[in-house]
Structure formats: structure tokens, C-alpha cells
From TrEMBL:
Cellular component, GO annotation: plasma membrane
Membrane in keyword set: yes
Organism for this UniProt entry: Phlebotomus papatasi
Subcellular location: Membrane
Membrane topology: Multi-pass membrane protein
Domain of life: Eukaryota
Domain Ion transport per the UniProt entry, residue ranges: 148-220, 272-493, 790-1065
MF annotations from Gene Ontology: monoatomic cation channel activity
Pfam families, per database record: Ion_trans (PF00520)
Name of the protein this chain belongs to: Ion transport domain-containing protein
GO biological process: positive regulation of synaptic transmission, cholinergic; positive regulation of synaptic transmission, GABAergic
InterPro entries in the cross-refs: Ion_trans_dom, NALCN, Volt_channel_dom_sf
Keywords: Membrane, Transmembrane, Transmembrane helix
Amino acid sequence: MLGRKQSLKGEPILADYGPEESLNESADIEWVNKLWVRRLMRLCALVSLTSVSLNTPKTFERHPPLQYITFVCDTIVTFLFSAEMIAKMHIRGVYKGEVPYLKDHCTLTINSLAIPDTFCSTDEDSGYQCPDGMKCMKMDFLTSYVQGFNGFEDIATSIFTVYQAASQEGWVFIMYRAIDSLPAWRAAFYFSTMIFFLAWLVKNVFIAVITETFNEIRVQFQQMWGVRGQIQNSTASQILSGDDTGWKLVTIDDNKHGGLAPETCHAVLRSPYFRLLVMSVILANGIVTATMHFRHDGRPRQVFYERYYYIEVTFTFFLDLETLFKIYCLGWRGYFKHSIHKFELLLAIGTTLHVIPGLYLSGLTYFQVLRVVRLIKASPMLEGFVYKIFGPGKKLGSLIIFTMCLLIISSSISMQLFCFLCDFTKFETFPEAFMSMFQILTQEAWVEVMDETMIRTSKTLTPLVAMYFILYHLFVTLIVLSLFVAVILDNLELDEDIKKLKQLKFREQSAEIKETLPFRLRVFEKFPDSPQMTILHKIPNDFTLPKVRESFMKHFVTELESDDPSLVEGMMKQPTSEYWESNIVFKKRKPVRIMNKTPKVRSVGSSLRKLAITHIINDSNNQRLMLGDSAILPVVGAKSGLKPQGTVTHQKQWRMDQKKFGSRSIRRSVRSGSIKLKQTYEHLMENGDIGAASRVSSSRARPHDLDIKLLQAKRQQAEMRRNQREEDLRENHPFFDTPLFIVPRESRFRKVCQKLVHGRYDARLKDPLTGKERKVQYKSLHNFLGLVTYLDWVMIFVTTLSCISMMFETPSYRVMEHPALQVAEYVFVIFMSLELALKILADGLFFTPKAYIKDVASALDVFIYVVSTTFLCWMPKQVPSNSAAQLLMILRCVRPLRIFTLVPHMRKVVYELCRGFKEILLVSTLLILLMFVFASYGVQLYGGRLARCNDPTILKREDCVGVFMRRVFVTKMKLTLGVNESYPSMLVPRVWANPRRFNFDNIGDAMLALFEVLSFKGWLDVRDVLIKAVGPVHAIYIHIYIFLGCMIGLTLFVGVVIANYSENKGTALLTVDQRRWCDLKKRLKIAQPLHLPPRPDGRKFRAFVYDITQHIVFKRCIAVVV
């Protein structure tokens, strides 16, 4: 159990008076604490010490009179000490009272503690050890009202402390207190796991549950929120308008002239140059505003802002003219029906009032800084994203109203409950109560509000007060804040029609494999073909007909420029078998290099030659089809039954005797035992008639299913075309798919390297023969072992050990000076060298289909290897600041990223995060724009007005001179001063300066302060300083910024990441009916029968015990006991 052990100065205090310097005769204290009494008591103590020193038998034998002297002294001293004791008992009480006498040894004051107060450990081997002159003492005698309400003394206090730590408010201080009192590893492990499970996991579970609840509401009540509004009026018609620049949709209403302006003015208004001019002026206004700054050089504040007044008048005049020009062109009714025009009109009126001398740099500055919001119109992508989030304002507006109502109601209740507490201003009035409850909503120092309230209530009501604040905090942080994420996700949800269109689009994209090869492979197409010829040592009948490639047949066949009907008709008069069975030898049209010289033969017509070659091609393709070759798949729904990809075909179909030429190879493949066709392509007919199979399948299938099959066939066709191109390059270029251009393509050495690189644990849990799932134990472990290859497992292990060794490096324990750390560096570089060498020799470096360097992850691996090798070869002995050695040490820190590239699941998470970069960039742009608006407002209103003297008693700058005594913080415990004690303080000079952590003197410091506030930290200091410096009304400024920036802006990041992940996963595109079907499948999967053990009917005693354990009463009793 963690108890409070404080470092005390010297021994435990034995009296309730302070040092002698603080006592004087005129002090209004009891007579026992007067100075002469204390000196008399000290004299009596010295006399008693002397008497005890003389009180021995030998001393009395040598000096007999000492017996009487010591007796008299002891009697007097005893009388005086007894008188002091009786007086203190009478004044302070024996057992009862504020400081009873018998508990006098436990009196503790502020001056008894270390500065600052700290926890300590009585165990010399762990925790913080007190320095010399101090003692570690356990404070069991202090109540929770003094030392605080957090700790682990009992179950209630422990639950209270755990919840406080789980809210991530002040948990670091509790952890460091435990580290000072206990072994460090125990406290760090306990609090780290608690934060992980209770703070991160539980909070995200609430977000997931509430988001899923919103999805179910959308599924069950599709019309709950109504139809989403459109950017333009649904009744407005749009037409296609085209010019030299392209086509675009134009609303008909835009062409209607509602104003009195001529056509020239309308042309100017529609001109992109006019919009560019307006956007440039707004951007210039924002840049000029950003140059405002204030210097603390003694000059008055108006000097720094007076020249900006005239510039602001100029910008306001120009933008007012723009507004009047639009009203003149469109008319009042046509101008006012657009929402953006309403916003522009509001800004024009507000900024016009703002330039009035008496209203300049007042609250109307909001209108001037909001002009930069119009820059969103300059980016259509950003405008669409903003509309998607804030356009459907029904849900988000309802949630904001609900949050404000909740704050108002809770503030009213809290004010009525705690307004009577003495010396407590947080709930005295409604504005203060509202700020306190809003503070709890943001979780910033909410524990202090609760503790201060609990201290000022009675002991019986303290648990109720704690429960009240905990329940409120639990509701607003886990439910209300999660509702913002759910609503933003719901706004990012697509319409049903758009979902269907995106589904079709993704189906087409999935079907359309990228047919073009990457550039690293297309390089080979720039070189001339140089196929290699081989000598056959067997007769042709011993070989299965090979795949006939277009790249090879081009050397023998030429396409007909035009079809000659007479020639075709003449050839068709003769039986086709004569052409096939004739012994005519065709002469090649284009010479190629062959091993043996061919005899001179007569030339025949190109049409007859092409017909015979076509028969050879079809015969080869039919045989490959029966053998299940994926390179010659049929296209479902095509006009011709079989359209081989990558072979030489002609436009006009030749009539061929399928029975004569096609069945020969088919029957031969069937006789050889080929049953792969039936297992792979069940839609093919037995005699090879593919067209009939497609007709049957298309007649039975629904149109929607047919579309899916066509898309699948399209995907297969695209894959075939891609594979065909690779096969052509492999056939025509000897260096294609040759690692480093030196390792032969089919060499045994490369095959060995490929086995080493691609070898992995076989995690298949199904029998390859029967197809049934095998019963194995630890199925998850089998899948985990088969996650990556053996080589990747080795590199994950080596990289992890290397990263662990880097964790032991310190400025005094460097890797350059200790061989133990160098061993890990050498091992990592050696293993990674072997890994890269094997992968490059197996798959190639760059110009191969499965090259090692083909994505960013592999490039990162090479970069890590180069950095590690360079560091190992250099191994600098000194690492100066801002040197190349320091840069190399910094680059070594990216080594743990290798684990992300090696583990597929981690790589997928990083990939999904990177895919949402566009949306994350848009959210970041919106937050920067929001910070700029509020920073500009802060510079104009608070620049130079927050500085003050560090002496609270000094209010003017000219009086802030000299030195003063500054009180030093000691402890958070509610300890009081002892009699005649004063707070510890030190002499410091008076300084007139801004607050220590923030100011609004220029745009940079203002944005930095607001960025810090954006993390929910430090905004209370900004609020308190603004209230004290410029007035309570200006606290609205920081509250609005917190609400917009933190509760909406930061949740946008969470919503965008979740939405992007869901869209990439596919669940975001599910329609209402599809989501219902998925929910039904989940419920059916959950509704599984319980697997209860059977009742042992053969044995009476076991059956009796079985009946008892299965009875509902027994189960309820066990639940109560637990």
C-alpha cells in the first residue's frame, strides 16, 4: 500500500513553536510560549543534563554534597516541567482539541517540509532517498482533507485515484509519487498498463459503440434526419455550357439578370479575373493584419496600431464596393438567396461599423478577421470538404445546442449546490459556475475543481460530491465528446445513390488491373527483340504443343492489308484438310537466326500460310485450355467462344472444321487424365463449346449477377494481357527477369536464393486432398508463424535486438566506446547485408518484375542499410553539435521503421494512414485558418495589454522597480503555518513582463499560444490572465476557441481517419440494405447454441452434482459471492 512519506527537516517536531527569531514579548500567545519561559525551560534542560551526568555512586562517594545539590536541582526541574505540562494540557486539551497535548509530537507545519514537497522511500534500494539533514516519515496522522483525496489506502480512495488517473488529468504526478516511494519498474508498469486499457482503449470503445449506434439508427430510421441538403437549390436547373476552355455545368438562375446592371457588368461579375482580384485583396488584408506587433519599449499602445487603421479603411471601402456591385448586378432578391452572399453582407456591415473611430479594435474586430474565411472559396476541394462537414447543420447544430443546454443545466444545479461554500468563488455566480463546468468538460484541471469542492464540504457529503463530479465528467467526456466524432462521421457518410455509384466504380477499378507495365519493365521495349533459339533433341511428337506467342509468330506471319473476297472464296472451295495435311513448307517472311540452314522452297500465298498458322495456334490454345492454363481463359459474354490473348488473329472469321482440328488435342488431353478443366472452369461444355456455356449462364443469371461476372471476366482479361506482355518481354529479351543482368533466369543458384527468400511456414489449416479443415491446436499461433517468411522473421528478431541495444545508449555510454553495443551494430549490418543480397539475387534489384526496389518501403530499407553501414565504417569518436556525425546519429533513429516494413499488418496501417493524407491536410488547413482568425483577433485586442509586474501589489509599470519577497511554493497539502511562522520566501527583483508561457504581441506568439491551447493544456492560464488584465467578458474569446478548435476541430482528425479506413475497407460504401444484411449475419453468428457438457446419467452422484451446478439458484449464489 502506497502511503505518504514526506521528507522532513531534521527530527520530527516535538513542539508547536517555531524558531526563536520569530518570537517576541509582545506576541499574543500563551505564557508557556513566551520567550523567557522557553529560555527557562532550556536552562532547566541543561541543569537536568548536568544533574544526570553527576548522578553516579562513585561521584557521590568522592563528593558527598553533590547528593543534595542534584536532589534540589531535580526537584526544581521536575516542578517546572510539570507546571509546563499541566499548563499545555489545560490550554490545548489532553486528547481532544485542534492540537491536543498527547498528539503534540505529530504536529506538522509548512516549514517542516522540503522545498518543494516530495515523496520518499524508507527502502534504501528503491525510490527517492532523503538528503542529509532530512528524514523520511510516514504521515498517517494527516487526514485526507489535508494531504488530498488520492491514494491507495482503501478501496474507495483507490477507485477514486484510478478514475482520476484514467481521465489523464494529473496521472503523471501520481505515477511519479509512486516511483519516489516504490520500485520504479512497478509504478511505471502499473500506470502504463492502466492508461493503455482505461484511458485509450475504453475511450475508443465508447467512440466505436456510439458510432455504431449512429449507423444502426441510420439503418433503422433512414428518414430520421431527412434528405441531405444540396449546395444549390434542388429546383434550379443546370445546363452544359462549353467554350474553348472546356465544358461545365451552369445553373440557369445564374444567367438571369435580376438587377439593373448592363450585360457588361454581369460579364465582369462572372469573370474569373474579378474573383481572383477579390481573393487577392482578401489575402493581402490577412497578410497586412499578420504584420501587427507590439513592443514593450515604453511607447503607448496606440502608436503601434494607428497606421493600420487607414489601411483597414481602404480594404473595407474596396470590399464594400464589391458587395454593392454584386447587389447592383444581381438585384436584392437574387443576391440575398445565396448563403455565401448573406455571409459577405454580414462581414461588410460589421467591418464598416468596425472602422468607426470609437469602435476600432473592439469586439467588432471579429468581422474583420473573419474575412480570411472567404479564402475557402478559392479551393473547390476545401470548399467541398467544409460543406460536407458543416453543410448538413441539422445534426451538428443540434449537438452543439444539446451541449450548451447541458452546460447551462449542470451549471445552474452546481451553483445552487455549492454557492454557499465559504471562500470558494468557482460557483458563486452563474458565469463562474458555467466556466467551472466547461473546465470539467475539457478535462483541464477538473480534479482541482472537484478537490476544492470536497474540501469545503462536510465529511458525510464528500463521497456524494465526488460521485456528482465523476458522473458528470464520465458523461461529458465519454459520451458527449464521442457524439461529436459520431456526428462528424455521419456527415462524412455518403448518400445512398453515391454509394451505389462508388461501388460500381470500385468494381470497375478492381476489374481493370493496370495493364501497362511499370517504367522499369517498359525500358526493355525500347531495345530490339533478340530471341534465343534452341536445338531440340527429341522428335516434335514427344512434346506438348507449346504456347504460341505473338512475338514469335510475327517472324513468320504478316497481317493482310485487306481481305480479298475472291481469294478467300477460292481457298474455301478446297477441303480444309488438304491445307492442313499437305507437306508444303512455308518460307519465313522475315529472316531470323536459326541453328540449321533451311532448304530453298517455293513460296506460297500469304492467305494460305496464315490459315495454316491459325490452325496451329487454335490447336495449341485448345490443348492449353483443357490443361487449365490461365493464360487462355474464355471471356464470358464475348461474341466468340474463345478469344486467345496475345496471338495473331485476323479481323474476318475463317470457317474451320472444329471437329477435325479442335477435337484432336482435346481428346488427347482427356485421355492423358486431365481433370483440371472440370475443377477450374465449370462453365465450359464437355466438347469445348464455350459460347454455349456463356449463353446458358447468361440466360439463368440475373442482370446484376451477370454484371459482376462480366467484371470478373474483365479483370481476368486484363490480367492475361499484362501477363502476356511480360511473357513477350521474357521471350524476346534475354536480360529480362535477370537479376543484376548476370544471374541466369532459370539457374539453380537463383532458385536456391528464391527458396531462401520466399520460404515460409505453411499455415494452411485445410487438407490439400480432401479440402476439409484440419483439427489443430493453437490455430492462431500457426497463422502467426505463417504471417511472414522465415527470412523476414529473422530480420524482425535482429532488428528488434538492435533497437533494444540502441535504447542503452546514453551521452556517457556511447556505442563508439563500448564493444558490447558495437556487437549489435555489426550483427544488424551483416544480417541485413545477407538479406539484401539474397533478395536481390532472387528477385532482382530494379529491372525485374518482382524487383526489390519497387515501393517506398524497400527504398526506406536501402536508406537504413546505407546509414547503418556508413556509421559502422566511420564510427566517429566525437559527436560535435551541428556536425555530420550528429546527423548520422539522428538518422540511425529511423531503424525501428524496418519493423513496420517487414510486418504486413503494420505496413497496412501506415498505408491506410497515408492514403488519408488529403483529408488530414484539409483538416490541418481548417485548423490553421481557425488559429489565424483568433490569433489576429488576439493581437489586435490583447497585444501589449497582458504584461504586468511580478509583484502583485504593483499595478503601474513605473512603480515596478526594486526587489520584494516572493513566496516559494512548498506543497499542495492544506497545511497551516505554525505559531509565529511565515511562508518560505526569497528576495527577487521586480520585473514588468508578459506571462511566462504566452503573449499576443505578434501573430507568431499568438498562434503558438493558441496551438498550445488546442491540446486542452494551458488554456486556464490564458483565461485567468485575460479576466484579470482586460475584464471577465473577454473570457468568451478563449471559450469559443476551445469549443470550435478542440471539440470540433480535433475530433475532425479522428473522424477523418476512421472514415478513410472504413472507406478503404469497404464498409463505408455499404447501403442501408447492405448494412442490414451485414448486421443480420453478425447476429446469426452470435446466436450460436451453447455447448454444454452432457449430463452423466450413468453415475448418480455426478448427475446430482451436475443438476446442482446447472440450477439458476446456484449460479446466482456464485455471482453474489464473486
